[in-house]
Amino acid sequence: MADENDIQAQPGAPAAVEGGEQQTEGRGPGRGRGRGGDRNRGERGGRGRRDDRRGNRDEEQGEELIEKLVHINRVSKTVKGGKRFGFAALVVVGDGKGRAGFGHGKAREVPEAISKATASAKKAMVRVPLKEGRTLHHDGLGHFGAGKVTVRSAPAGTGIIAGGPMRAVFESLGVADVVTKSNGTSNPYNMIRATFAALGEQTSPKSVAQRRGKKVADLLRRGGASAEVAQADAEAIAE
Predict the structure, then answer these.
(1) pLDDT > 70? residue 209
(2) Integer Cα distance of 142 and 170 in angstroms
(3) In 147-166, which positions are buried (b, 16+ CB within 10 angstroms) versus exposed (e)?
(4) 124-174: per-residue pLDDT in tens?
(5) What CA–CA distance (Å, rounded) separates 98 from 174?
(6) Fewer beta carbons within 10 Å, N or C terminal of the chain?
(7) Strand pairing partners for 179?
(8) Does domain 66-127 match CATH 3.40.190.10?
């Protein structure tokens, strides 16, 4: 009995519990598992990480882009066990406000090829000046390989007069009125490249005036218009 009293009197000794079991503060089996479970859940799934990924997706989707799938090509390779198929996708992307780009991607599956092509198109977007936000400023010619295209500005209400691959470019670009003609080839890759070559040569009166150190109204008056009409046209030009 004396030895037990001496043990209980010692500071820091664990308290004796009926049945011979000892218990220490803060280390109960239920409490320990609960804390460990909460800690593991925080390390594994962390809501913060999911929120960060969701925020990044929202930022990427903040800019609404128009995606047009132009062409999908399937190729096969004969191997010892049979045939192995692959896919190539051609995609045109634009914001509908004067910016557009195209890209192509290859993969074993169609969705992966389209996603690669879309990512490539977003990186290669170019800006094209538009007249009144609906048509081109002037006519243009584009050439790539065997593809030759002609693009012409058109009055309001004309619509998009273009073939399949070229139509996808102008719809994603935001052009509402245009007349086009393609000669030489029906290959969608060459048609798209020739179309962007023609769009790359587009200039606006504002950019020409800045390059020559003049006013837009001075350039428009050389066409025979009066000073009042030239000034009104110059104010109406947004690009």
Answers:
(1) yes
(2) 14
(3) bbbebbbbeeeeebebeebb
(4) 999 999 888 889 988 999 999 999 999 999 999 999 999 889 999 999 999
(5) 6
(6) N
(7) 152, 161
(8) no
User: φ, ψ for residue 75 (rounded to 5)?
Assistant: -125, 155
* Beta-carbon count within 10 A of 132 CB: 14
Closest by alpha carbon to 172, among 104, 116, 95?
95
For residues 217-234, give the mean pLDDT: 62
pTM: 0.66
Give the separation between CA 130 and CA 239, rounded to whole angstroms: 7
Residue with tokens 């295209």: 149
pLDDT in tens, 82-119: 999 999 999 999 999 899 999 999 999 999 999 999 99
Report which of 111, 86, 89, 112 is spatially closest to residue 102, judged by C-alpha positions: 89
Long-range pairs, 104-107, Cβ under 8 A, ≥24: 104/189
Query: Where are the domain boundaries for CATH 3.30.160.20 in the chain?
Result: 66-127
Q: What is the pLDDT at residue 236? A: 56
